[in-house]
């Protein structure tokens, strides 16, 4: 037996053989039935592929944004499966059997919203598929391990979509920061909302993608996606031009990190930094936690919204891309 398998027999993933374990239904109705395990039948093919990392193989097939999300999901699953002893790259996924995956599902649906639990189950199926394709699991063991029903139920009610009033509050919070980060975040939020950009698209934008003279913005020119072209209106152009004037005209990423001293770093902003910027500006504006996805969803509502401000006036605007950007063509 390999050193890896010897170590694994001391970890909490399997006892007896699969035939000696209760049915998946028993495991789900009684989580205690999925007790820590001490031994599992080892597929002889597994030992010949010890250097293979199924988690890395699975993650390498995903886009940058999905890769971060699924890496976090696999890390959580690996920690749960090994009681904190393994991360996603150390766990011998090929030793998981139906009693283990059913126990993981039970824990997921008891602690996470259905949609989030299903995302974790998708990651689990994906990494097990890599183990099977590499010959570390038999087809029968693989099919049994992934034979899990999806998580069902009602997700917690989402907050109402952001409206014009909330978007103005976010912009005002950015303007309240007189440093470079304030100008950057105002322009960034304008793009996330006005052009419905994903974080992965925003971080790939280059300075040359925006034409100061015309207000034309090209999206997707560097990420392998179909290119889209937008025209910024006056408000969006003001935000972008303010940021670019502070950033400078050096070629490179359109959006850069700004350190605590206010110095602009000549590298691209990370997706996580965009998420943190949205949360920070929402907090400053007195709004609930707001994600980049909330800004995109606000833009997808193409209807007239009426909102009453503190002074009693009613602001009416179409919550669509036309507020800040107009799509002119698709290359």
Which key terms come to mind for this protein?
two-stranded antiparallel sheet, hpI Integrase, Chain A, elongated, single chain, 14 helices, about 325 residues, alpha+beta, disordered C terminus
Overall pLDDT confidence: 76
* Integer-rounded radius of gyration: 25 Å
The best one-word shape is: elongated
The largest sheet has its strands arranged as 1-2-3-6
Biggest sheet architecture: 4 strands, antiparallel
CATH architecture of the largest domain: Orthogonal Bundle
Multimeric status of the protein? single chain
Topology, number of strands: 6
CATH superfamily of the largest domain: Intergrase catalytic core
Straight-line distance between termini: 57 Å
Please report the number of helical segments: 14
Could you describe the 3D structure shown?
This protein has 331 residues and is of the alpha+beta class. Helix content is 46%, strand content 8%. It has helices at 3-8, 24-29, 44-47, 54-60, 64-81, 98-111, 114-133, 139-145, 164-176, 180-194, 199-204, 234-247, 271-284, 292-300; strands at residues 210-211, 216-219, 228-232, 304-308, 314-318, 325-330. The strands form two sheets. Strands 1-2-3-6 form a four-stranded antiparallel sheet. Helix 10 crosses helix 14. Mean pLDDT is 76; it is low at 1-48, 301-323 and 325-331.
């Amino acid at each position: 037996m390999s050193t890896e398998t010897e170590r694994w027999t001391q970890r909490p993933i399997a006892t007896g053989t699969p035939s000696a374990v209760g049915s998946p239904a028993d495991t789900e109705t009684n989580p205690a039935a999925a007790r820590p395990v001490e031994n599992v039948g080892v597929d002889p093919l597994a030992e010949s592929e010890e250097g293979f990392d199924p988690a890395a193989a699975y993650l390498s097939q995903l886009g940058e944004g999905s890769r971060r999300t699924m890496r976090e999901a696999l890390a959580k699953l690996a920690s749960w499966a090994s009681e904190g002893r393994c991360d996603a790259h150390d766990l011998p996924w090929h030793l998981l059997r139906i009693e283990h995956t059913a126990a993981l599902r039970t824990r997921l649906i008891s602690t996470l919203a259905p949609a989030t639990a299903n995302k974790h189950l998708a990651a689990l199926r994906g990494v097990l598929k890599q183990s099977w394709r590499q010959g570390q699991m038999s087809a029968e063991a693989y099919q049994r391990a992934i034979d899990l029903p999806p998580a069902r139920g009602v997700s917690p009610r989402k907050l109402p979509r952001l409206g014009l009033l909330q978007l103005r509050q976010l912009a005002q919070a950015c303007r309240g920061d007189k440093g470079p980060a304030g100008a950057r975040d105002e322009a960034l939020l304008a793009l996330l909302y006005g052009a419905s950009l994903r974080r992965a698209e925003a971080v790939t934008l280059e300075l040359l993608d925006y034409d100061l003279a015309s207000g034309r913005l090209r999206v997707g020119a560097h990420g392998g996606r179909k290119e889209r072209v937008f025209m910024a209106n006056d408000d969006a152009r003001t935000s972008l031009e303010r940021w670019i004037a502070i950033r400078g005209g050096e070629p490179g990423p359109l959006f850069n990190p700004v350190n605590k001293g206010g110095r602009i770093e000549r590298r691209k902003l990370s997706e996580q930094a965009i998420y943190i910027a949205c949360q920070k500006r929402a907090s400053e504006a007195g709004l609930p936690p707001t994600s980049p996805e909330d800004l995109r969803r606000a833009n997808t509502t193409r209807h007239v919204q009426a909102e009453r401000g503190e002074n009693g006036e009613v602001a009416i605007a179409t919550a669509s891309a036309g507020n800040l950007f107009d799509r002119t063509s698709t290359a």
